[in-house]
Each structure stands twice: as C-alpha cells, then as structure tokens.
From TrEMBL:
Any one GO molecular-function label of the UniProt entry: ATP hydrolysis activity
Stretches assigned to the DRBM domain: 1-38, 142-214
Organism: Antrostomus carolinensis (Chuck-will's-widow)
UniProt region (Disordered), positions on chain: 51-78
Principal subcellular localization: nucleus
Signal peptide range in chain numbering: none
EC number, UniProt record: 3.6.4.13
Subcellular location: Nucleus
Biological processes annotated in GO: positive regulation of transcription by RNA polymerase II; regulation of mRNA processing
UniProt KW Nucleotide-binding keyword: yes
Stated name of the protein: RNA helicase
Cited InterPro entries: DHX9_DSRM_1, DHX9_DSRM_2, dsRBD_dom, P-loop_NTPase
Listed SUPFAM superfamilies: dsRNA-binding domain-like, P-loop containing nucleoside triphosphate hydrolases
Amino acid sequence: FYVQVRVEGFNYVGMGNSTNKKDAQSNAARDFINYLIRVNEMKRDEVPAFGPAAGDTPDRHEAARDVTGSSSTLGGPLPPHLIIEAQTGAAPADCGNRGAQWDRGANLKDYYSKREEQGVQATSESEVDLNADLHGNWTLENAKARLNQFFQKEKIQEEYKYTEMGPDHNRSFIAEMNIYVKQLGRRIFSREHGSNKKLAAQSCALSLVRQLYHLGVIEPYSGQTKKKGESVEPYEVLLSSDLENRLQKTVQELSLEIVPLPEDPSNPVLINVGKLAHFEPSQRQNHMGVVPWSPPHCNWNPWTGCNIDEGPLANLTPEQISMDLKSELMYRLEQDEELQRIQQEREALPVKNFESEILDAIRHNSVVVIRGATGCGKTTQVPQYILDEYIKTNRAAECNIVVTQPRRISAVSVAERVSYERGEEPGQSCGYSVRFESVLPRPHASVMFCTVGL
C-alpha cells in the first residue's frame, strides 16, 4: 500500500508505504511530521519516539516487549510470526535471535492465508459500485469492453502503459493511457492503480469510459448491471440550522437548481439533474505531482520506492549507517590486496588529476558540466569520487547517485566495470536498471546506472 499525506497550507507531500494500510499510513505521517520539525512548525520533543534511543540496543537485536499492538517498540511493523502470536495471546519472552523458537512455516502460512482472505473480501465488497448511476452505469465489469469498441470504431491504437510499484513480495501496478478524442479535439488521460495488471487496466478503462460519457461522446450503459437488485436503504438526516443556512447560501451563490420533493415520500428522487456542468479543459499538468526535495530517510529504499520495515536498516540512524559503511570501506582498502591494485590503476586515469577540483565545484554549484575526451574516466570515476567522499566524511547515508546511459548494453557494462573497480559484485554499492532487467544496489551510499527511459 502507498499513502500520501497532503495538508492545506504546506507545500509538501508526506509519503509512506508498507505491506498493510496501517503501517503505510504511519510511515506517511512520520514523513510529514519530520518535515514539520525541519521547518520549525513542531518541536522534536513534542513527537513521541518512533524507536529506541541510540545505545538502548547495542547488540542491535530487536526486542518486542509488547506484541499486543500492531507494531513493535522499534517503531516498525511486527513480523508475521509476532502478529500471529499476538492474535493468539502467546507473547514470546524474547523476539530476538537469542533462542526464540517458533514454527516459521506454519505461522507464515496462517499469516498469508489470512491476508488472501481479506483481499478476496475487499474485492467482493468493491464489486458493488453505488455511484455507477451517476456515471452512466459504467462499472469495472463493462467499461473495458466498451472502450475496445470505441477504439475499433475510431481506429485508435493505444496500449496500457504499466508501472510497477512496491517490493517484489508485494508488487502492485499502475496503468495509464492517453488517447486523442477527435469529437472533442483534445486528449483525455487516465492513471489508475491495481493489485495486478488486470485490475489496473480495468480501473484505467473505467476512468476513460466515464470521462467519455460525461463529455457526451458515448452513451450510458443499457445492459444489466451486476448486483443491480442491491440498494442502500434510505435514512433520515438531521441538519443543524446553521448548516442548513450555509447550504441555502451556497445553493444561491452557485445558482443550482433545487430538485422538488417527490409527491410520494416513499419514492426516492435523484439529486442530480441532467448532465454534469461543462468546464473548459484545464492546462496539461504533470500527473505524477510535484514532490519537494526532502533529506534522505534512514528507513527508505529509494531504488524500490518502499519503506524498509524489517531488518537492521529499519531502525539504524543515518549516523550509524554512515559509520558502518565507512568502517567497511576503510577495512577493505587496508586489507584487500586486489582492491589496492585496482586503486593504483584508477589513479593512472587522466581525470584523477582533477578529482579535488571536480569535488570542490560540486560542493559550491547545483549544476556542474564536465567535458573530457573519451576514455578519460568521466562516467566510471566521477560517481566514485563523489561516493567515496561522502563515505569518508561520515555522510554515506545521504548519498545516492543516478547515472544515465543512452543504451542498455552501456548501462550494464559500465555498472559491472564500476563494481569490479570497487572489488564487489553488482548489487552492492553499484547496480543497474534497464528494461526487463535490474540489479538494484543497496539503499544507502550507492550508484545506479540506468537508461533514460527508466
């Protein structure tokens, strides 16, 4: 699940995701609260602690002293086996790796089977679209077929563009489509989310068909709708006099037509008259939205766009992460003879003479253009200079580098070369992402080589 928090008056979007809605909401709220602290709208001591203070758990073992809640004392969600034990009332005395015994296979099976049942229940509940009458009775079941008929009639050849979201174990998809409608002389756009490609495509088609219906291009659905016999029982609503006066004032200001009361009170009446009001097409906007810059988060993986809810990185502070990565690099530089030999080869490249000048320019400028002959080391060396400087100055958790390449083969080969120069395999401090293939690097202090399409 992916959650965004927007508050009127603040130019910031809090973001968070996780394997369940509650933790995704908590992560998004945490992100927005951190923003409020950065802009001095809140004080840090006003915010309850999300995890243990530094030094409380020197051995870095997770300890869950209260498994009755939805999250552990470390601020992240409970692992599946603790959720099952919390629901059954069995509180383990020690949830670290100091001898706790639990049946991993059985507990995980119960956990994921329960999640699957909840997903089926949510899908069945969403099949009843109570607002279908407002949109020409177009629903998920009939919209895609009507959109295909519209494409055949107008000779439109468009395909859904899919974008993957979330980690591999909890993958979801976004489907989007942009089509030109000659009857309107302009384009319409839809971008919808689904747990799989089929649901995402159905939601995207439904959005397009409803837009075409309200714009007067297609007719309302005349067939039998699914579960049409089900309806919501009407019930009376008591309004305060103040709210009633405000409604009357709003109706007068907007010049709305009041629907007369039915002669028979037992017969319901629609509150919408005719079609929706016509609005002039607005200027094209970026549908992804603009998210302002924010500092790196210790529990966020930028390469997967997902919170790190489990493992040691979920609770380490940026300072601890930076210290660990620096210690690892310095140890390898001192002990690894092969790495020392590679470092000597790197120092022979022409760009090495300009390392300090390049880093100084990057510190004092937001955009730096480096011009050099082919093979001087611009692509392979400059990202490593930046990365090593951040690691050696205890700022490793603040550094992630993206390097674009024009071709797939160049992105893969350069990533493999840089990994070799660092004495590693792709997927550690260096990775790549091209179409149909990705080897993602670690969440912090890493370099990603990718093609411009990604």
